[in-house]
Amino acid sequence: MASDIRNIVILTGAGISAESGVATFRGPDGLWEGHRVEDVATPEAFVRDPALVHKFYDARRSALAAVEPNAAHRALARLDAEWPGELLLVTQNVDDLHERAGSKRLIHMHGELKSGWCLRCNQRSAWNGAMGQGAECPACGTTGLVRPDIVWFGEIPYRMDEIESALQACDLFVSIGTSGAVYPAAGFVQTAHYCGAQTLEMNLDPSLGSYLFDEARVGPAGKLVPAWVE
Ligand code: BV8
């Protein structure tokens, strides 16, 4: 890595978990039981059909037990442990593979499958099993008012202030395994570029925003990311 690089921001998307066996959103398998994610991952869908939305997230939460971090997650965790400068890993993913690989300086901007959010007391709690409609909030005991702690379309992503500050201060912005289809994440490369950072994309196919990057490497994250970290 160039010697003038000190502060790094890394953005990951579903593609970094693909080699672990976690389905991406917009690939050939991009539908879930015939539903587009955009039709299930919304507050309106949750009001309209909470059972369907809980089923969608319960299925993905239980699938986490069967998957493991891959070489790309592990390489980023090594970088997190060894990089002497600032490093922030922002993931759009709601799986727990980055933390299981050991990444510490991590933000889940779209929430986490393994968290529940009580609409009565507003507390978030760790969640491993099914949530369903009768779930009881561990903090206040209310049942039936726990929702997935996921940022749905139309909702504001988490910790955007911290992310914006890191983008403005970084020397290098790296995007890994994302189609560039969803904002504000898809716009991070422009913020970093305007603030003087070098930008690198690593993706199986050129993303919608590939043209915005100084460099775009095409291939599987499990191969490209360890080679880049080394
Ligand atoms: C917001 C949680 C305001 C759900 C998700 C019109 C124009 C522009 C924007 C909008 C618009 N209309 C509405 C909007 C805003 C909207 C949006 O962007 N819509 C899109 C569809 C147009 N955004 C929002 O609503 C966001 N909120 O804007 O609030 C605001 C903003 C800022 C500040 C204040 C207020 C909220 C968006 C969050 C939605 N929730 N996830 C869940 O997970 O169930 S988004 C969902 O898509 C996932 O999080 C996912 O991470 C994300 C992006 O998808 P990707 O991760 O990129 O996955 P995808 O399948 O698309 O691509 C995978 C890529 O990997 C591919 O390129 C593939 O080639 C590659 N790949 C595959 N295998 C590999 C690989 N790469 C490497 N190696 C491999 N092996």
Automatic annotation (TrEMBL):
This is NAD-dependent protein deacylase. GO terms for molecular function: histone deacetylase activity, NAD-dependent; NAD+ binding; protein-malonyllysine demalonylase activity; protein-succinyllysine desuccinylase activity; zinc ion binding. NAD(+) binds at residues 13-32, 92-95, 177-179, 203-205, 221. Pfam families: SIR2. Binds 1 zinc ion per subunit. The keyword Nucleotidyltransferase does not apply. It comes from Sphingomonas sabuli. It catalyses: N(6)-acetyl-L-lysyl-[protein] + NAD(+) + H2O = 2''-O-acetyl-ADP-D-ribose + nicotinamide + L-lysyl-[protein]; N(6)-succinyl-L-lysyl-[protein] + NAD(+) + H2O = 2''-O-succinyl-ADP-D-ribose + nicotinamide + L-lysyl-[protein]. Residues 1-230 form the Deacetylase sirtuin-type domain.
